[in-house]
Amino acid sequence: MNRRVILKLAVFFLLLTGLFWNEDKEAQAGSLSTRGVWVSCFEYDSVGLAGKTESEFRANADTLFSNIEKCGCNAVYFHVRSYDDAIYPSEIVGWSKRLTLGEGAPDYDPLEILVDSAHSHGLKFHAWMNPYRVTQKKVLDPGDEATVQRIVSQVKEIVNGYKVDGIHFDDYFYPSNQKKFNIIGKAERMENVNDMVKRVYKAVKKKKKSIQFGISPAGDVSYCEKIGADVKTWMSEDGYVDYIAPQIYWSDNYIMDGKKTKLFKERLSLWRSLNTNDIPMYIGLAAYKAGSSLKEDPGWKKSSNNLKKQLNQIRNGNSEGYILFSYTDLYRDTAAKEIKKMIADIGTMQISSKNIKLHVGSTYELSVTAAWPSRIRSGIKWESANNSIASVTSGGKIRAKKKGTVRITVYYGTLKRKCKVKVVK
Fold this sequence. Notes:
The strands form six sheets. The chain has an eight-stranded parallel sheet. The chain has twelve helices and 21 strands. The chain has helices spanning 3-29, 54-70, 97-100, 110-120, 145-161, 186-207, 221-226, 231-234, 263-274, 299-302, 306-315, 336-346, and strands at residues 34-39, 75-81, 85-86, 94-95, 124-129, 166-169, 212-215, 243-244, 254-256, 259-261, 282-285, 321-324, 348-351, 355-359, 363-365, 368-372, 381-384, 390-392, 397-400, 404-412, 415-424. Helix 2 packs parallel to helix 4 (110-120) and helix 11 packs parallel to helix 12 (336-346). The protein is elongated, with a radius of gyration of 25 Å. By secondary structure, it is α/β, with parallel strands linked by helices. The longest helix is centred in the first third of the chain and has 27 residues, at 3-29. The two termini are 40 Å apart. Helices cover 34% and strands 22% of the residues. Helix 2 links the parallel strand 1 (34-39) and strand 2 (75-81).
């Protein structure tokens, strides 16, 4: 066999290995086809994007999306309009002060850089918008035609100017505590919001049918309807949204009326029952509560398995993924146990050998040949079931000490791989 044929065969087997490895990743993740994370305007500064030069911004954006990719995510929902503003040069609204820090417009286009950087890391980029909010207390009037035109115009500006994969609205609609809106009934509120939602959907699809439009409403359906979010219609009729991402931000150890309630399970079941049009459903998960001590929701402190268990519930039904709120909580110390178990739940590993025969006094470099998500690599640990027979270092180097058979385990959280080592004289 000549060298050219050997080379072609080698390339073929490498490609084949990569194909099966990618299939293994998705099989491990189960039905979680969308694994997303929100990046909020309140995180611009902490992730190094606020008030930066172009070179600094590019470098920090690359780090941000690299970290997101390492956590097994394949989509990012990035705040581009938080307070009737923009993180790009807009002809409709002013610059986001949380991005510019009030120092004036940057001499580059942050959104263009963000979209390109996210795509370079294999992430879908969804432009997250608060449609009505102007400040924490002031909102645009949802019943005003000028409001709808303003929102639709900015959506068009984004889909026409940037290669975004989606437009994403969150849970802020009619404010629940402002007197001037109290005279408006629930039905009228939902009618006004529905008009805006349909027009946004139409504008997005006119640009490109593959661009997704979705909404992430509050997890309490009755509250949604109170503030004008007609989620039942959105999930039963065409022409409103491509997906829904309800924020089910509770554990299954929630205290309601003095009793322990499996609130996540109950709310997830309700949302599924309402999804009569069977649109994709990505569940909003409360990474921000992980490890927190909450009187009404003690489950987040009592257990570090909440997110892992929630992923298993998401897999078992008509829901296709999750979105974590929010990015900084993936690296928060007090959430570390919870996040580690969640990543291990979707992850997979391969090791260089499952059976090894060594002579006393010899060594062997056992290695992890593949790990997904790649964040797993930085937390891998090694363990020998019997150090007197064979020990293993933190880097996977096995040293045979005396005759016998022992198991060497490499693990990340609950994710484990084992190697059988036989030591002979």
